[in-house]
Design a protein that fits this description.
Elements lengths: L9 E8 L4 E6 L3 E4 L7 H4 L10 H12 L6 H17 L5 H10 L1
Parallel strand pairs: 1-3
Antiparallel strand pairs: 1-2
């Protein structure tokens, strides 16, 4: 084995859970903080609760709400863009006389 490439091993490292449970085990860090352990995990306790540490449930619900919105396809977007262009062209003068009349009105 090569020397000085392996991390230091702590055989009696302290692991602390968010629920207050602590235990000792071998780790490469002297102390470790965790959010869920076997004392508070829903699978082991039999209680149904959300274990949401990073707002995953809210982001999933927001994603579901966004999925129900109508999404336009490329062809529909193109048709809308073409209709807008046609509407804007209808307001333009078609002849030089109309252009001169519009300038005088302003």
């Amino acid at each position: 084995m090569k020397a000085n490439i392996h991390p230091q091993f702590y055989p009696e490292a302290k692991v602390s859970c968010a629920c207050g449970n602590t235990f000792i085990m071998g780790l490469t860090t002297p102390k470790l903080n965790i959010e869920v352990c076997s004392n508070c995990h829903p699978f082991y306790t039999g209680q149904m609760k959300y274990v949401d540490t990073a707002g995953r449930v809210e982001t999933f619900k927001a994603k579901l709400a966004g999925a129900s919105k109508k999404v336009l396809t490329k062809t529909e977007k193109r048709k809308l863009k073409k209709q807008k262009r046609i509407e804007s062209e209808r307001g333009r003068p078609t002849s030089l006389e109309e252009l001169r009349k519009n300038k005088k009105k302003r």
